[in-house]
Write a structure and sequence with these properties.
By secondary structure, the chain is an all-alpha fold. The chain has 26 helices and no strands. Helix 16 runs antiparallel to helix 17. The chain starts with 17 loop residues before the first helix and ends in an 8-residue tail after the last helix.
Length: 477
């Protein structure tokens, strides 16, 4: 059988496809072997997959070559090419996990190590602005932990000092992708080993602080060790240890740090511990997060009255469907009707488009459309995500004038910016406008569609690439 590489994974079979499982179960072993042989003879992908499945050594060598090909690459990985490289790293990791790890944990650990150590070369020649490559290398760290744990379980690790291995790996965390080695360290290390590792990082932090006072190192160096200590605290689910990772360099944590500590207490379901830190004064930039943390703390502690007060404040600061629902669900039943009426009233002055979204959710489509009509000038077409969702809601509710005004704001924003990449979207919005214009009898003080499009052509007559899109663009069903 020929050996072919690389071997991308076959498309997964839907586990719920009972009909397929039933047919396979009904076939004899000989029939299935014959079928696989026939398919493999005409499929290089399947032939390589069989090699991977039946020969871990061959799989390991092939995977090592694939990792080596990435490591030795010379070309710059442009932003557009980063997803492809990330996908290859993910495929290699999956092949290691599925084809090597079950049969040879030592080979799997060695391969996973080579995979996440790509961070030392790949980021110097890649535009990973979306973090896709980094995410896959973080996943490779977790793969290594699982493989190392499998090695350790077989007692063939030859007395490897695993805490030291993790410590050394993390010292080379130059690109910030090796955090999972510590944050998920419980996959490999025992509790006492994790605590000893945290102590080692704390000692490092204190030595760094002493060196900084002596002018031997830069002040920021302490954060590397203290952050490592905090990651180990996450692995242990120990908020007091995380608290200590902050206190080691900040005897009096500021508001942001206090919120961070409280977050870790809450993650461990310790509301009382969180409240100790949620009383620390914080600036305006941390107040909204502080309210959310207080909400979670009061919920854990069963302080319903305080939680209602907090959610009232959250709704006041950010009125919208999410803050409305959050408050409504814990209000006494007798207060919900009045709250609903007040929310409808408040929406007249609340920020768009959240106010209109809320009115649609409260099944007040006429009020929502009137709000859009009255305050159309406040619609910012650059708020693409919210407006495209809102326009679908308006159209679905038959509020075509509201939808038309939203489409106009989106078109105006794209053309005013000259954002050529979005001209296709703008053309589709204009076609939507044309389609609904015949059904709008009253524009309620806004220009008719004919007047709007005439003004659009005058203002953007030179954007030929946009106008050319109209003939090649269609409205999706």
């Amino acid at each position: 059988m020929p050996h072919v590489e690389p071997a991308p994974p076959l498309s997964p079979i839907d586990p719920d496809a009972e009909w397929l499982q039933g047919r396979l179960a009904a076939a004899t072993k000989e029939e299935l072997v014959a079928l696989v042989e026939r398919l493999a003879s005409s499929s290089e992908e399947l032939a390589a997959r069989i090699d991977y499945l039946t020969d871990p050594s061959a799989a390991a060598k092939a995977l090592q070559r694939r990792i080596g090909a990435i490591r030795s690459g010379k070309r710059f990985i442009a932003y557009a090419d980063a997803p492809e490289v990330a996908a290859e790293i993910a495929t290699i990791a999956e092949d290691i996990r599925c084809d090597v790890l079950p049969r040879d944990a030592e080979k799997a650990a060695a391969l996973a190590e080579k995979l996440f150590c790509l961070d030392q070369v790949i980021f110097d020649r890649a535009d990973d602005s979306d973090g896709l490559i980094g995410d896959e290398l973080r996943a490779a760290c977790v793969l290594w932990l699982d493989a190392a744990a499998a090695v350790r379980a077989t007692k063939t690790d030859h007395g490897t000092n695993w805490p030291v291995v993790l410590y050394d790996f993390y010292q080379a965390n130059d690109y910030g992708v090796r955090e999972p080695l510590l944050e998920q360290g419980h996959r490999l290390l025992r509790e006492e080993e994790l605590r000893a590792l945290a102590t080692r990082f704390e000692d490092d932090a204190r030595r760094t602080m002493d060196a900084e006072k002596a002018g031997k190192v830069e002040p920021h160096r302490v954060f590397g060790s203290s952050c490592a200590m905090g990651l180990v605290a996450r692995a242990l689910r120990d908020p007091k240890l995380y608290e200590q990772s902050i206190l080691v360099h900040s005897a009096e944590p500021n508001g942001l740090q206090a919120n961070d500590i409280a977050e870790h207490y809450l993650a461990c379901d310790d509301g009382a511990g969180a409240l100790r830190w949620l009383g620390v004064p914080c600036g305006e930039n941390a107040q909204f997060e502080r309210l959310h943390l207080l909400d979670r703390a009061y919920e854990l502690l069963g302080y319903l009255d305080r939680q209602i007060d907090i959610r009232r404040e959250l709704y006041r600061q950010a009125p919208g469907i999410h803050s409305y629902r959050a408050l409504e669900e814990i209000l006494p039943t007798g207060e919900r009707s009045a709250f609903r009426a007040r929310a409808c009233q408040d929406s007249r002055t609340s920020p768009l488009p959240a106010a209109a979204e809320l009115l649609f959710a409260l099944e007040e489509p006429a009020l929502a459309e009137q709000l859009i009509v009255d305050r159309a000038g406040e619609l910012d077409g650059r708020n693409y995500v919210m407006l495209t969702a809102l326009v679908k809601t308006a159209k679905a509710n038959g509020r075509l004038l509201g939808a038309a005004l939203i489409w106009r704001s989106l078109i105006n924003a794209i053309l005013t910016r000259g954002y050529a990449k979005a001209y296709g979207h703008a053309a589709r919005y204009l076609l939507e406008l044309r389609a609904v214009s015949a059904s709008i009898e009253d524009y309620r003080g806004h220009p008719s569609h004919e007047s709007y499009e005439r003004g659009l052509r005058l203002a953007h007559a030179r954007k030929a690439s946009f106008w050319g899109r109209l003939s090649s663009t269609s409205i999706p069903d």
